[in-house]
Design a protein that fits this description.
The chain is an all-alpha fold. The chain folds into three domains: about 100 residues, no CATH class; about 180 residues, no CATH class; about 160 residues, no CATH class. The protein contains 24 helices and four strands. The strands form two sheets. Strands 1-2 form a two-stranded antiparallel sheet. It has a two-stranded antiparallel ribbon with strand order 3-4. Helix 4 packs across helix 18, helix 13 packs across helix 14 and helix 20 packs across helix 24. The radius of gyration is 25 Å and the shape is globular.
C-alpha cells in the first residue's frame, strides 16, 4: 500500500505547503535531471500549475534532434565499417547525454520510453538503425501512444531485436507479437490468449525485405500471410495497422491502465495507488491516447507533490551524475561526458543496452555492494576532475547558493539541503557535516567572524563537504 494520500487534483500553493525550492527540485529531479539555480528562481515566481503546463508545452514543441551525417548510411557507404560505426556510436552517446543535460525533460522521457520499448544495440549493431530508433522514441515521447506503438514496431532496431524481420507467411515468428502484448501494451497475461499471439504474428508478417545491412527494412507482400486471422474475436485478412487498431479498440482500458501504472511506478513510487492510476487511465482514454494530458495531470497533482512522494526513489546511474552536474552547475566537456557515459555503464546503466527485453527494473535494482562503491568512485573521479579543471568552481557553487554568509552551520545546511531531497535525519548529522566543512581551520576564526567565503581555503572546504554528502544514504534518493 502507498502512504501517499494526495489526490489527483492540482496542487495549489498554501501556507501549510508553499511552492518552494524543495518542491521545484522534486519536480525537476523526477521529470528531468535536476534544476539549475536560474530554473529554480524562474519557477518560484510562477503559479505551479501554469508553470508545469508551460514546461511540458515547451518540451512538446522542441524540434527533433538534427540527424547526424551518417543517419541513413548503409553498409556499402562505409570504407571501414567497424571503425566508423564505433565512432558514430560514441558520437550519439555524447549527443544523447548532452540532451539529458541541456534538454533534461526530453532526455528523461527519451530514456524512460527507451526502457519501455526496449531494443539492444549489441543485437542489431548498426548506426543508422540506432539513430532511427532514437528518433522514433524522441519524437513520440510527448505524442500519441497508439501512433507510438505503430511506429516503434516498424523501426529496424525493433524488427531485428524481436525477430520481426524473420516473420513470414511460411515461417511465422511470434516473438514481437508476444512482447507487443506482454511488455508494450497490456502486461503479462492481461486480456490476450496464446491464440491471439499466434494470429497476431501471422498478421504482422511481411516486414522482411533488407536489401543490405543497415538499409531500411521494408514490406514484402510475397512474405505476407494473406489468409484470415482472428484477433480478440475479430476475423479478417488483418495486416500490421489492423493489429494496432484492433488492439486499441478492443483492449483500450487494459492498455491505459498498464501504461499509467508504468508511469506511476517510474515517476511516483513502486508502491502503486490504484485510484490515481485509474484516474490517469481515464484521462488517457478520454484524450484518445495523447500522452501530454496525462503528464500534465500527474505532474501538477497533489499526489505528485505529496511529502510521501519525495525522496523515495533510488537514483539511476544517469540520475546520479546528471543531477549532480545540473545542480552544481559544474562545467562539462565532451571528454568528461564520455567518461560519464562510461561510469554509468560500469554501475549498471549502459546507453542503448537495457539488461533484457523487460528493461532495467530500477529502484532497488540499482544498488548493491558493488554498484554503491562504484557510485562513490565515480564521484571521486568527477569531483577531482572539476578540481583540476577549475577549483574556483567550488567557491562559485557555494556563493551562488548562499550569498556571502560567513556562518559555517548555515552554509553547510543550505548546501546539504540543496543536494538531498529529504535533508539529513538529525541535528547531529548536520553538526558532523559542518565540522567536515570547517576542515582544519581553527574555531576562533569562525567565532570572531574572520573567516568568509573569499578565503583561499573555501574551494577545498566545499569539495570535502561534497565528498561527505555523496556518501550519505540520503544522497542516493530523489
Amino acid at each position: 500500500m502507498s502512504c501517499n494520500s494526495g489526490s489527483i487534483n492540482p496542487y495549489i500553493s498554501s501556507v501549510q505547503k508553499p511552492w518552494d525550492t524543495r518542491l521545484i527540485q522534486h519536480f525537476y529531479r523526477r521529470i528531468g535531471f535536476g534544476a539549475t539555480s536560474n530554473e529554480i528562481a524562474q519557477a518560484l515566481i510562477q503559479e505551479p500549475s501554469l508553470f508545469i503546463d508551460e514546461v511540458i508545452e515547451k518540451v512538446y514543441n522542441l524540434p527533433s534532434t538534427i540527424p547526424p551525417s551518417w543517419a541513413y548510411m548503409k553498409e556499402s557507404d562505409y570504407t571501414d565499417i567497424d571503425t566508423q560505426m564505433q565512432e558514430q556510436h560514441v558520437e550519439w552517446y555524447l549527443k544523447w547525454e548532452n540532451d539529458m543535460l541541456v534538454n533534461p525533460i526530453r532526455g528523461r522521457f527519451t530514456l524512460f520510453w527507451s526502457n519501455h520499448f526496449v531494443t539492444r544495440l549489441e543485437d542489431y549493431w548498426c548506426s543508422s538503425w540506432m539513430f532511427d530508433y532514437y528518433k522514433v522514441i524522441q519524437e513520440n515521447s510527448f505524442g500519441n501512444f497508439k501512433n507510438f506503438v505503430k511506429e516503434i514496431g516498424l523501426a529496424p532496431a525493433m524488427l531485428i531485436f524481436l525477430n520481426g524481420y524473420q516473420n513470414s507467411a511460411a515461417e511465422p515468428n511470434e516473438n514481437y507479437a508476444r512482447e507487443l502484448y506482454e511488455l508494450f501494451t497490456l502486461g503479462v497475461n492481461n486480456g490476450y490468449t496464446q491464440n491471439d499471439i499466434v494470429e497476431t504474428a501471422r498478421a504482422l508478417t511481411g516486414y522482411t525485405r533488407i536489401d543490405e545491412y543497415c538499409a531500411p527494412i521494408s514490406f514484402d507482400i510475397n512474405e505476407f500471410d494473406h489468409t484470415e486471422k482472428t484477433i480478440f474475436g475479430r476475423t479478417g485478412n488483418w495486416g500490421y495497422n489492423d493489429v494496432i487498431d484492433i488492439l486499441f479498440e478492443e483492449r483500450g482500458t487494459q492498455i491505459a491502465n498498464f501504461i499509467c501504472e508504468k508511469l506511476y511506478k517510474y515517476f511516483i513510487s513502486p508502491e502503486i495507488n490504484s485510484v490515481i492510476i485509474s484516474e490517469l487511465a481515464t484521462t488517457l482514454i478520454t484524450n484518445n491516447f495523447e500522452l501530454v494530458p496525462v503528464y500534465k495531470q500527474l505532474f501538477k497533482s497533489e499526489h505528485f507533490f505529496n511529502d510521501n512522494a519525495i525522496g523515495i526513489l533510488i537514483k539511476s546511474p544517469f540520475d546520479l551524475l546528471n543531477i549532480h552536474f545540473r545542480e552544481t552547475e559544474f562545467s562539462t566537456e565532451s571528454e568528461m561526458l564520455l567518461n560519464l557515459v562510461w561510469f554509468c555503464s560500469e554501475i549498471g546503466q549502459t546507453m542503448f543496452e537495457p539488461v533484457d527485453v523487460a528493461g532495467w527494473q530500477g529502484n532497488h535494482d540499482w544498488i548493491n555492494s558493488s554498484t554503491l562503491v562504484g557510485r562513490w568512485n565515480a564521484f571521486d573521479y568527477f569531483l577531482w576532475w572539476t578540481w583540476e579543471d577549475n577549483k574556483e568552481s567550488f567557491r562559485d557553487f557555494v556563493v551562488n547558493l548562499v550569498g556571502e554568509s560567513n556562518n559555517p552551520s548555515e552554509i553547510t545546511k543550505i548546501v546539504v539541503d540543496h543536494l538531498l531531497s529529504n535533508s539529513l535525519q538529525t541535528e547531529l548529522d548536520y553538526e558532523i557535516a559542518t565540522d567536515i566543512f570547517k576542515d582544519e581551520i581553527p574555531q576562533n576564526y569562525f567565532d570572531n567572524n574572520q573567516w568568509n567565503l573569499q578565503w583561499d581555503t573555501v574551494p577545498y572546504q566545499v569539495i570535502v563537504l561534497l565528498f561527505h554528502i555523496i556518501r550519505q544514504p540520503e544522497f542516493q534518493l530523489k
